[in-house]
Design brief:
mainly alpha; single chain; 14 helices; transmembrane; peptidase activity
Length: about 375
């Protein structure tokens, strides 16, 4: 029910922003242009999340938080600040907006940390949620920018469809990852803070992440407002290098997840918690997909859903168990491991898997 209300509220907000374009064609163009990068960026974060997939409802909530609540909070506070302190648009954009918008987006992580800490348990989790919060925020914000450009912006020499398209090239094609990049500093900091035992270290890590997000956002906005063409290019290139470095680190950490998953599942097989023949169908994407297809072919859709559920439980149990065994702080780690194992045992009588794969004997105990 909550997500339905939030989604409806988001749709109303999108409609209000797009209506700035003044007519149905302009509104449709603004929404259509804003939608173009969304599937690709969403797929990028889905790919990063494949090994330890986060609950869909939380990923959806992250996107909606960015596109509804963070936008609403930001608009309200920025309008109030501009009015109360008689600030120019340039000052608001360069100095107020970065603080307000990153704080509004960061509230998602604070609430998640306080109410559902177990869904944030590392670098990749924080990065994925940050990307989706930033994507939702950018989607709705871009609708407003495209609508204004359609009507005619003082920063552009053209209006109508040409004006909206020109703004789309800058925001939708050349910088679709700007907001996800800014917010990634906050998301990663919360993901790492969960792993820290000291409360003061957690506060320090999160504060540093928030400051990094505000700094990147502020440099980006100020380069557009005050930096001229050269200033913008310098900041754009610097943030591009930072984004590339983040991508490299993320790929390295993601590859480590593969090794952790295989090591933990192998240990479970040795303990007799799972059958050794199940290992490839739990740890390798190609074989996981093959197992679901086999179950669907042999016993129907429900059997395929059982296999998918079993695979997700096994993956989650493997990562939780590894955290417990390596001494990393994880909320109720032992209890969660037992509960996940019990859930897998409940599914096992209905499990339909392909025959054992002989070439993967190295995975067997």
């Amino acid at each position: 029910m909550m997500f339905t209300v939030v989604a409806v509220s988001g749709a109303v907000g999108v409609g209000v922003l797009s209506s700035q374009a003044g007519d149905a064609r302009g509104a449709g163009l603004a929404v259509g242009l804003a939608l173009i990068p969304v599937p690709l960026v969403w797929w990028l974060y889905w790919w990063l999340d494949r090994y330890e997939p986060e609950p869909r409802r939380y990923k959806f909530a992250a996107f909606v938080w960015g596109g509804v609540f963070a936008v609403a909070i930001s608009i309200g506070l920025e309008v109030w600040a501009a009015t109360a302190w008689d600030l120019s648009d340039d000052v608001v954009a360069s100095f107020v907006a970065p603080v307000v918008e990153e704080s509004a987006k960061g509230l998602f992580f604070l609430l998640t940390f306080l109410r559902a800490r177990r869904v944030l348990d590392g670098f990749v989790d924080g990065l994925v949620y940050a990307g989706l919060v930033g994507l939702g925020f950018a989607f709705v914000e871009n609708i407003g920018y495209y609508a204004i450009s359609y009507l005619g912006s003082p920063d552009l020499l053209v209006d109508g469809a040409d004006g909206a398209t020109t703004t789309f090239v800058v925001r939708g094609l050349f910088s679709p990852l700007a907001h996800p990049l800014f917010t990634s500093a906050i998301g990663i900091s919360f993901g790492l803070a969960v792993l820290c035992r000291s409360r003061w270290v957690r506060v320090l890590v999160v504060t540093a992440g928030w400051a990094g997000a505000v700094l990147m956002h502020g440099l980006w906005n100020a380069s557009v407002t005050f930096g001229g063409g050269v200033g913008f290019v310098v900041v754009y290139l610097a943030l591009s290098v930072l984004l590339a470095g983040l991508a490299v680190v993320t790929v390295i950490i993601r590859s480590r997840q593969v090794r952790v998953l295989e090591r933990s599942l192998s240990y479970m097989a040795q303990r007799g918690w799972i059958h050794p023949a199940e290992l490839p169908y739990l740890s390798r994407f190609g074989y996981r997909r093959q197992a679901r297809r086999h179950a669907r072919r042999e016993a129907g859709r429900e059997a395929a859903r059982v296999v998918r559920r079993y695979q997700r439980l096994g993956t989650e149990m493997a990562f939780v168990h590894d955290a417990v065994m390596t001494g990393r702080p994880v909320p109720a780690g032992v209890e969660r491991t037992r509960a996940l194992l019990a859930a897998m045992d409940d599914l096992r009588p209905d499990l339909v898997l392909p025959p054992a794969i002989r070439p993967l004997a190295a995975h067997r105990s």
